[in-house]
Design a protein that fits this description.
Blueprint lengths: L5 H5 L34 E2 L7 E2 L6 E6 H7 L4 H5 L5 E5 L7 E5 L7 E5 L2 E3 L17 E8 L3 H4 L6 E7 L5 E11 L3 E11 L3 E15 L10 E17 L2 E16 L8 E17 L4 E17 L3 E18 L2 E16 L6 E17 L2 E12 L3 E15 L2 E12 L3 H5 L10 E14 L2 E20 L13 E22 L2 E14 L12 E11 L2 E10 L2 E2 L7 E2 L2 E13 L2 E8 L18 E8 L3
Parallel strand pairs: 6-9
Antiparallel strand pairs: 1-2, 3-8, 4-5, 6-7, 8-9, 10-11, 10-33, 11-12, 12-13, 13-14, 14-15, 15-16, 16-17, 17-18, 18-19, 19-20, 20-21, 21-22, 22-23, 23-24, 24-25, 25-26, 26-27, 27-28, 28-31, 29-30, 31-32, 32-33
Length: 621
């Protein structure tokens, strides 16, 4: 069947639904971080909130920004370790950094967060959502986290929010950097980057390699050490074609091989991940009021295992035409976008399945005096499900120069993955999951002192889950009999409190999340979601040293949907210290889980215990 083009999407726009069922107070946007290090300055520019560059002071949405300096100071082993410090995010793992990782944003499923790398959407049409453990932290320059539904901007998947990851950019000059590190479990790493450019061309290249012997991720399984090996590359080249036109090419390639313990005891199971993103973007500024951007991108996620054979590969290709027009104090944006999903999996029928979505999106942002308004509407025409309209409305009001109130409402959806529909566990007539959210808030900041509160409630209908027992799908018999189904409704409600101050020479930061991620049909908490989590951070300068510490607390959770398998609460203490040992040389030391707390984020899977890391960086200024 011939696939319609984007031109067909332009005629398909229907009135977007702007609805909600609860109150949300959103003070804690980008400046409200759990640690002083990640507080964005007033000059910070963000992209994720509206897909347009905006000063942080103009953003109404609930956004967090983490830059490369904060990532370097953290000494974190993986991207998930950085995200675990961000308000509203809970991370779980089936073992070490290279094992299956879930990122729950505001308590919502991993698949409910749309993830981009340099504007390239990445998604697995088998598991649903991004493969977090395959994204190399060594290549990450900046992270933007948008909390709250954003389907009116990004289409399917963004029921809980959006996380956008940026690799390094080039700049005029010549800037090399090399970092070596060693740590517990015989971990060793080597990373190198090179950035530079002229008035016409800029570039950034990065190489990374990491090895670790690991630890036994599943004590009840094969009693071996589940080590891993990571190799990654990132590249960006920008070419200024004319005074107000630029072409950018971005590439990320990450290969990971890791040991894991599967269902069969004694097997020396190995998994291989290959994540690749490629993007080509052309931007033009025609005059003072009109900008155009064209983007062509592809994200590929490949996963295979041995000796237990399994192979799945997802490709997500997108084409975007975006026009922005300044209208007085407002900015109008119009997007035409096409997305194609392609899954190759041995358990689907046929083994290669695909679909496409054409979309038209319109946005309008306006700011005058104390008032800020953002309106977005989008219509997606899916080849399998037909039309889906979404919308969002956000308003901010500066009560005083230091105090700001915001309120927003939005709808979102996610179509079922191709695996959920066409595998042996699949149900072809699954419905799309849909969400309705409303939030409002306050934010106060005066110098180094800041405080924020956000209250939210997100209602999701037709939630998809695996239903055990005989069903209508092919997998109706056997040990793992069952199939996917729309199990009912879920509610993700909660409040996030953030704040920070400077007490003498010590910078203090804190965040507290009180959440109620609940299955409305059963009244039970959703699996592995905590009702309480908190972070407390402190850092200070002592002579030539920079010292830091963080306390992370995660409350009691249940490993299963029936709430019969309890996971105990835990509290971790992490410590860092860094100093310049010579011109252009920096030494960093980190101790994670300093009290050697034994805990589980997934039942039956071990965690690392106390670990040490020592890194040395050469970066000439």
């Amino acid at each position: 069947m011939k696939k319609p083009t984007l031109r067909a999407a332009a005629a398909a726009l229907s009135p977007a639904i702007v609805a909600g069922s609860s109150l949300c107070v959103s003070l804690a946007h980008a400046a409200d971080q759990p640690a002083p290090e990640v507080v964005a300055s007033l000059s910070t520019v963000v992209v994720t909130a509206t897909r347009s560059e905006q000063p942080i002071t103009d953003v109404v949405a609930d956004v967090t920004v983490v830059d490369r300096d904060e990532i370097d100071r953290s000494g974190a082993a993986a991207l998930a370790d950085v995200l675990a410090r961000v308000p509203g995010i809970l991370v779980t793992r089936n073992g070490g950094p290279a094992t299956t990782t879930s990122v729950y944003l505001r308590g919502a499923e991993t698949r409910f967060t749309a993830v981009f790398v340099d504007g390239v959407r990445i998604d697995s049409q088998s598991t649903g959502g991004a493969t977090w453990n395959a994204i190399p932290l060594s290549q990450v320059d900046r992270i933007e986290v948008l909390r709250g539904p954003a389907a009116a901007i990004y289409g399917s998947d963004a029921l809980a929010g959006v996380i956008q990851i940026f690799t390094r950019e080039g700049e005029k000059g010549f800037f090399p950097s090399v970092r070596v590190g060693v740590g517990s479990h015989s971990t060793r790493e080597l990373n190198a980057s090179l950035r530079g450019g002229s008035d016409t061309v800029d570039y950034a290249l990065g190489l990374g390699a990491e090895r670790s012997d690991g630890f036994n991720a599943k004590p009840s399984g094969n009693p071996d050490r589940d080590g891993y090996r990571n190799e990654s590359f990132s590249g960006r080249v920008g070419w200024k074609l004319a005074k107000d036109q630029k072409l950018d090419l971005t590439v990320l390639d990450s290969r990971q091989k890791a040991g894991y313990d599967a269902f069969t005891p004694g097997n020396d199971d190995q998994s291989k991940h290959h994540l690749q993103t490629v993007g080509l973007n052309w931007a033009a500024r025609w005059n003072e009021v009109w900008n155009t951007r064209v983007g062509v991108t592809r994200g590929t996620d490949r996963y295979e295992t041995s000796p237990s054979p399994y192979l799945t590969e997802t490709q997500v290709s997108t084409w975007l035409l975006r026009n922005e027009l300044k209208l007085g104090q407002g900015l109008l944006s119009v997007d035409l976008e096409r997305r194609e999903d392609d899954l190759r999996n041995g358990s689907t029928t046929p083994q290669r399945t695909d679909r496409y979505q054409n979309a038209l999106a319109v946005g309008y942002g306006w700011r005058a005096g104390a008032h800020t308004l953002q309106v977005n509407a989008r219509h997606d025409d899916d080849s399998e499900f037909g039309g889906e309209s979404t919308g969002s409305l956000a308003y901010g009001f500066a009560i005083t120069p230091n105090l700001r109130a915001t309120a927003s409402a939005g709808t979102a959806f996610r179509v079922p993955t191709l695996f959920q529909r066409f595998s042996i566990y699949g149900t072809p007539d699954l419905k799309a999951e849909t969400a309705r959210n409303l939030e409002a808030g306050l934010r106060w900041q005066s110098g180094a002192d800041r405080a924020g509160v956000v209250v939210y409630r997100n209602e999701v209908k037709d939630l998809i889950d695996y239903i055990a027992g005989p069903g209508s799908c092919v997998n109706g018999v056997g040990t793992y009999a069952g199939c996917y189904g729309n199990t009912g409704k879920a509610r993700y409600s909660g409040v996030t409190l953030t704040g920070g101050t400077k007490a003498g020479v010590v910078n203090l930061g804190a965040s507290l999340d009180l959440m109620r991620p609940k299955n409305q049909e059963t009244g039970k908490l959703l699996a592995r979601r905590a009702e309480t989590q908190a972070t407390l951070t402190a850092d200070t300068a002592l002579g030539a040293w920079r010292l830091g510490g963080e306390v992370q607390h995660v409350g009691k959770r249940y490993n299963d949907a029936a709430n019969t398998q309890a996971l105990s609460a835990y509290t971790l203490l992490n410590l860092t210290a860094s100093t310049g040992i010579a011109r252009d040389w920096t030494l960093l030391a980190r101790v994670d889980n300093a009290t050697d707390k034994a805990y589980e984020s997934v039942l039956g899977y071990a965690t690392a215990g106390r670990t040490f890391y020592l890194g040395l960086t050469w970066s000439p200024r």
